């Protein structure tokens, strides 16, 4: 694999970057042109390449060569076409990751390492070591890989994604197109961008949106703030209309998922058993916000709690619900087996119900 030098952009200072410089010990002595380089020096050694291999079966075909194997000859004489046995082929892939514990635990995307037979981790200093997949959570597109060799290994500092604001600097680090240790710079352009609003219906994610370039191979690498702290795990880029926008899983969410994967190898995802839609305008009861119950799982938690198809959830855990995203967040925060109070508008009247989320993928009724 070709190795390229770090690509670091110099940018002019803004009032916010100057303020961050004054209040952060990590950047106190830096000139205004150097904060990106300093951030990469701090986190870059912990950014890794993840090379994967998997073996797939290829269906057999007709045997090549010779008149007896010519399809027209055999068809003319009514002879069956001989077949080859299925063959095996090795498929290779590549992504990025970031070491978050000195014993060699790496955060990356599930789609980087799922269904793989071999994982090889490439470090910034040129080392290449075998890795093992600890656990995968497809619903949040997160996975944890462990470096098989003993450490200690370089670690990237983890930030607080709950403190991220629109307009903050965003630095994406990874290995796009096989070009190691590539850095791009932008800003946080939006927060809490729900995956369903991007047309991704099989994931449960509220994402950080950035205009820092994220390209194929960046998946699983870190999104850094101006101080070199990981605030997100890069996961996808928008193609077609709106191209040029990238999205990252907030690190606070990723850390919780990683903790469960390391402890148990799997992740618990609560659900209440409803399909939700947005409130349409106009509507007979004059609602401007809320989540409409479009479908309901028979004998699931919501039905047992008395929720009906056509109900509009307007509040969850004491907070106003603007759309389905707030309900999903409230269910996640409540957890499996813990009551979640809901405010329901039913035909223009508001009622209060309590639902106890169950485990996604569980067997119903219970």
Give an account of the 3D structure.
This protein is an alpha+beta fold. The chain is about 15% helix and about 35% strand. It is built from seven helices and 20 strands. The strands form four sheets. Strands 1-2-3-6-5-4 form a six-stranded antiparallel β-barrel. The longest helix has 14 residues, at about 250-265. It is globular, with a radius of gyration of 25 Å. The termini are far apart.
Tally of alpha and pi helices: 7
Largest beta sheet: strand ordering: 1-2-3-6-5-4
Beta-strand residue percentage: 25-35%
Q: How many strands? A: 20
Amino-to-carboxy terminus distance: 53 Å
The largest pleated sheet is described as:
6 strands, antiparallel, barrel
**Helix proportion:** 10-25%
**Could you list the spans in which at least 5 consecutive residues all have pLDDT below 50?**
1-23
Q: Residue-averaged pLDDT, rounded? A: 83
What structural category characterises the helix and strand content? Answer: alpha+beta
Quick synopsis:
The protein is α+β, with helices and mostly antiparallel strands and about 375 residues long. The protein has 7 helices and 20 strands. It is about 15% helix and about 35% strand.
Kindly list the characteristics that best describe this protein:
20 strands, alpha+beta, six-stranded antiparallel beta barrel, globular, disordered N terminus, 366 residues, single chain
Topology diagram in text:
Elements (H helix, E strand, L loop, with lengths): L14 H9 L11 H9 L3 E12 L12 H6 L10 E15 L3 E4 L1 H4 L4 E5 L5 E10 L4 E6 L21 E6 L7 E13 L11 E5 L11 E3 L5 E8 L8 E5 H14 L5 E2 L2 E5 L12 E6 L4 H4 L7 E5 L2 E2 L3 H11 L5 E7 L2 E7 L2 E2 L7
Antiparallel strand pairs: 1-2, 1-4, 2-3, 3-6, 4-5, 5-6, 7-8, 7-10, 8-9, 9-12, 10-11, 11-12, 13-20, 14-15, 15-16, 16-17, 16-18, 18-19
